[in-house]
Amino acid sequence: MQVEILTPDETLFAGETEMVSLPGSNGSFQILNSHAPLIANLAKGEVRIGEGKSATSFDVKGGLVEVLKNKVVVLV
Q1: According to DSSP H, which parts of 1-76 are helical?
Q2: pLDDT tens-digit series, residues 57-69
Q3: Domain total for the chain?
Q4: What is the pairing mode between strands 56-60 and 45-49?
Q5: Contact in structure between 74 and 65 (CB atoms under 8 Å)
């Protein structure tokens, strides 16, 4: 799935991955390939992209995530 992590100033990440872990306002959750459409609030925490040693992570202070047609857009 295509993932973009955007701030008002820059694009932190844009690329393909199979898993994204997000700090939701009601608890952490994961998004995998072919996830159902979703819009959710994010809390302060860590966004992880990928798994194992190839994982990339970003600390966020909150934001929104939108999942639609195998594309994940994270606004922080």
Answers
A1: none
A2: 999 999 999 999 9
A3: 1
A4: antiparallel
A5: yes
Which string of b and e fits 28-47 if b means at least 16 CB within 10 Å? eeebeeeeeeeeeebeebeb
* CA 49 to chain CA mean position, Å: 7
Q: Which domain holds residue 58?
A: 2-75
9: CATH: 2.60.15.10
The SS3 assignment for 52 reads helix
Gap between the Cα atoms of 53 and 36, Å rounded: 27
- Cβ–Cβ under 8 Å, residues 69 and 3: no
Q: For 25-63, write each residue's pLDDT tens digit.
A: 999 999 999 999 999 999 999 999 998 788 999 999 999
Residue at 61: amino acid letter: K
What is the pTM assigned to this prediction? 0.92
